[in-house]
Amino acid sequence: YFKIKQLLSERTKEELVSLLVGVALEYEEVRSRIELSFHKGTEKDELKKSETLIKTYIGKYEDDFGYIHYGDLPDAVKGAEMVLNNARCYFETEKTQHAVDLTVCVLHEMIRIIEHVDDSDGLIESIISQCFELLSNIAEKTTLSAMCRERIIDKLLAEGEDPIYTEWTAWQLDFIRISVKLANGSKLLNKVEERLTSLICAGQKENDGGFLMEQYHLIMLDIIQENEGKEKADEYVMRNIHFPRLRKKAIEDAFTRGNYEEAVRLTKDGEEHDGDNARLKKQWLEYRYKAYKITGETDRLRELAMSFVFDGSIDYYHELKSTYESSEWTGIYRGIIQTLEENQKTERPLYAEILIEEGEKEKLLEFVKKNVSRVKLYYRYLIPEYSDVVFKMFCQYIEYCAERADSRNGYRDVCAIIRDLKKAGGRTQANEIKEKLLKKYPRKTAFKDELSKV
Questions:
Q1: Which of 208, 283, 332, 349 might form a disulfide with 203, Cβ 3.0–4.6 angstroms?
Q2: Which residues sit opposite 68 in a β-bridge?
């Protein structure tokens, strides 16, 4: 850098101009950068030159199929980064509308190429995120005039309608959310509301009940609540209760008001409506459980808790246990164990956790015997009562692993199990199995080396 600077400083203005002209004629991206840096045209001219600069850098690094490879991507987006930096400068110098135009230009070009690049490092997504962050900062600026806000909203809503965003719903939503922020509770919200209404109507015609439609409704709900009040917002929620997040709002509102009967009704409707979706169904059941817990409906609470237990929840097992006296509980937990065994659900972690919780060591021992690899997990719960059996299982497992170990990492794993055997109190057995392995595998130098460290 310093050498080049010195060389250039020794040249005359005419020589430097001649050099730059020659470089610009040879490299299109240099020409575009010079035109952008020293232009004296209008903001519209700069916007066109900015778009050209971005496309010039991209075009230089595209292969014959229009694809940009991983190593070329940082250079390919230099034009976009330059334009985005210019947008930041314009924002700082109060040229807000131009800052928005440049930012949207960058966004558009990045979205255009995003499926035709190797963006393993997330560089394109990072630039897009920076664009939306700048737009969001602009929206929060309190000194923007109503006219400026309206122009920006029109720009953002129009950009969000472009077909190139069809597969990028999160970014479509960002345009709408930033527009809501720009409207700032003013009459400009009507523009956003009209756009949302058209999107919702289009979705209803196609019977679309997916994520994007739900997000449209949530944004609309915020607008209604801010402009028309809670009563209208509640009515909107109930009209669109089939969307999970809206149902969740209604349920939580019922809890806030202490209307637990309404909360239960909404959860039961949700269970019926979303019965094919295990995650949602569980969510509605958990809300219903919460309602029963508050209202003290113990029988219904136990019924739900039991269903959660059989789905594998140790937390609800503890909850269920807390609803019984000690004298009653013994028969209940033994019934749970029996049901898990009869339904062949003993492989679930819950089964062993219950055995440990209730001190059923004999059953736990039988469980571990069926797969000696389990001894590592459960040995501490079986000693000292069953030490001899535990030590024997450890040795069986160590020999099994040693037979299959064929690398230093594998040998280290075997040695780690021997150390666990020592921790369990089987120091004598650990030394014996170590000597046995040294004799059995005399040619495995790496194995012998690792065993010497035990």
A1: 208
A2: 117
Backbone angles phi, psi at 222, to 5 degrees: -60, -40
The residue whose two tokens read 């059923």 is 360
Q: Which of 186, 177, 83, 89 is nearest to 139 (CA)?
A: 177
Distances (CA, A) of 437 to 85, 156, 273, 374, 429: 66, 71, 61, 21, 12
In tens, the pLDDT along 343-366 reads 989 988 999 999 999 999 999 999
- The residues, any chain, with a CB within 8 Å of residue 358's CB and separated by 6 or more, are 333
What pLDDT digit, counting tens, does each position of 138-168 carry? Answer: 999 888 999 999 999 999 999 999 999 988 9
Token code pair at residue 44: 């519209």
Cα-flanking dihedrals φ and ψ of residue 237, to 5°?
-60, -45
Let me know: does 398 contact 418? Beta carbons within 8 Å.
Answer: yes
β-bridge mates for residue 117, sequence order? 68
Give the global pTM: 0.76
Residues 6+ apart with CB under 8 A from 46: 36, 39, 98, 102
- pLDDT per position as a tens digit, 369-394: 999 999 999 999 999 999 999 999 99
